[in-house]
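About this split. The held-out portion is used to measure sequence recovery: a designer receives only the structure tokens and must propose an amino acid at every position. Recovery is the fraction of positions where the proposal matches the reference. Here is one held-out target exactly as it appears in the evaluation file.
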């Protein structure tokens, strides 16, 4: 099983036709496409990346799939995502690390990731879900993981359930999925 499949399976439980979702790390657009399918023809996905190439590839992917009208793509840091949303959202997704097949020097960073998660938690509906898939085997990855976990551990338990899932029978930095459920 790929952890990203688990992300999409959980997302399916929180999204329906008309839902609003955020892909905070667009990359090649695979997650954006999956979310666009899940929010249905009345839904909307807000997707962010700092690389023009990510927007180009995602635009092509969505056009081919006939899903372009379900997404708004932003060339800007997810640290500003909360300010760009016109409405509360049902779910957000992060896929940390570098773009597969892209420039490995452009990676997500702990400070901006935490800033983005914090902002998006404020825009998440009660009962909504935040999913953060952390790849951390690259340079800078362990530091981001440390900063993110320190932030997540401090989230008030009365307001959020935070879980951490990882495969235990894999070596070499198996990805970790953090799931944050907003309770109220
Ligand atoms: N979800 C993507 C997919 O389905 O292909 C993969 C995402 S990739 C692991 C991480 C992405 O985060 C890269 O495309 C990178 O450019 C982007 N990124 C890095 N820092 C960012 C930031 N501050 N704001 C938004 N995106 C960022």
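Reference sequence for scoring:
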């Amino acid at each position: 099983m790929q952890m990203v499949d688990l992300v999409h399976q959980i997302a399916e439980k929180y999204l329906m036709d008309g839902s609003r979702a955020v892909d905070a790390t667009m990359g090649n657009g695979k997650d954006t496409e999956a979310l666009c399918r899940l929010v249905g023809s009345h839904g909307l996905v807000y997707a962010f990346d700092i690389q023009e190439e990510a927007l180009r590839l995602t635009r092509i992917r969505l056009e081919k799939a006939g899903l372009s009208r379900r997404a708004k793509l932003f060339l800007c840091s997810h640290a500003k995502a909360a300010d760009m949303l016109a409405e509360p959202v049902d779910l957000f997704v992060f896929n940390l690390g570098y773009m597969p097949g892209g420039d490995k020097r452009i990676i997500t960073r702990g400070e901006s990731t935490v800033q983005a998660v914090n902002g998006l938690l404020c825009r998440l509906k009660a009962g909504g879900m935040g999913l953060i898939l952390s790849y951390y085997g690259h340079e800078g990855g362990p530091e981001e993981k440390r900063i993110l976990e320190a932030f997540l551990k401090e989230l008030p338990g009365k307001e959020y359930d935070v879980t951490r899932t990882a495969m235990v029978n894999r070596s070499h930095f198996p990805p970790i999925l953090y799931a944050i459920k907003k309770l109220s």
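Annotator remark: The chain is about 35% helix and 25% strand.
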